[in-house]
Amino acid sequence: MSQQDNLSDGLENYSQETDMAALAAAMADASRMKILCALMDGRAWTATELSAVAGIAASTSSSHLSRLVKANLLICISQGRHRYFRLANNSIASLLESMMGVTYQASNSSRSKVPEVLLTARTCYDHLAGDIAVKLYDSLISHGLLERDGRDLTLQGKEKFLRLGIRTEATTKRKKCCPCLDWSERKFHLGGFLGASLLEFLEYNKWIERVPGYREVMITPKGYQELSRHFQVNK
Q: Which PROSITE patterns does the record cross-reference, listed alphabetically (predicted)?
């Protein structure tokens, strides 16, 4: 059989649907989903920390983590005697965020089950989400700082970000800027490189404080003051 025949046979046997089913199977466990959702805070966690958040034994978490790594949902980073796990890439984070939106019912009874602090502000992997993030996105557009399609800053927006010290030029091939649908608000917040850069700025300047081990984000008094001053965003 020629090399061309082998290639053709391989293409015929390849099934994207099979790969999709394998990915879904790797996620089809409540404990593994708890692990994946915990890692939506954008940080790397140890196996011990993840077993605690999932409420399972360390030995059980080990097999779950191996399954997730094998499915390319997580990557493992070794540092000294410790091993840390984090989401494999932004695409996995986007997939999880979409799943949260699909499973979230926009009704008063369902909304009441979500902690108020998560509705107000949380991390969506490496950018800010929640009510405050949606208000910020809307403000950027209404004040002419962000293009109406959310795909890039305006010239005025770039100047504003640079004056504040927010990085605007991506150093990777990642999307520079994009609207990200917020699952709890059903409106857009800022994603892409600029979304990540903005979150980094907010945390560095203590406009926000992260809650260790959770996606919850607390807006500091200084943060509310500065968000109002620079972006006309209020509680």
A: HTH_ARSR_2
How many distinct helices (H) and strands (E) make up the chain? 12, 9
Please compute Rg for the chain using Cα positions: 20
DSSP string, 107-157: SHHHHTTS-HHHHH-EEETTEEESHHHHHHHHHHHHTTSB-TTSSSB-HHH
What does the pLDDT look like over 107-142, one tens digit per residue?
A: 555 555 667 778 899 988 889 999 999 999 999 999
Positive or negative: CA dihedral 27, 33, 36, 40: positive
**Of 216, 168, 190, 180, which is closest to residue 42 (Cα–Cα)?**
216
pLDDT at 104 over 80: no
Record the tokens describing residue 218, joined without a space: 């607390």
Q: Tell me what the mean pLDDT of segment 47-73 comes to.
A: 92
> Is 81 in a helix, a strand, or coil?
coil
Instruction: Quickly name the fold that domain 16-88 has.
Output: Arc Repressor Mutant, subunit A (1.10.10)
- Domain assignments of the chain as residue spans, ordered by start: 16-88, 91-231
Phi, psi of 190, rounded to the nearest 5 degrees: -85, 125
Torsion of CA 62, 43, 111, 95, to 10 degrees: -80
Confidence of residue 5 (pLDDT cuts 50, 70, 90): low
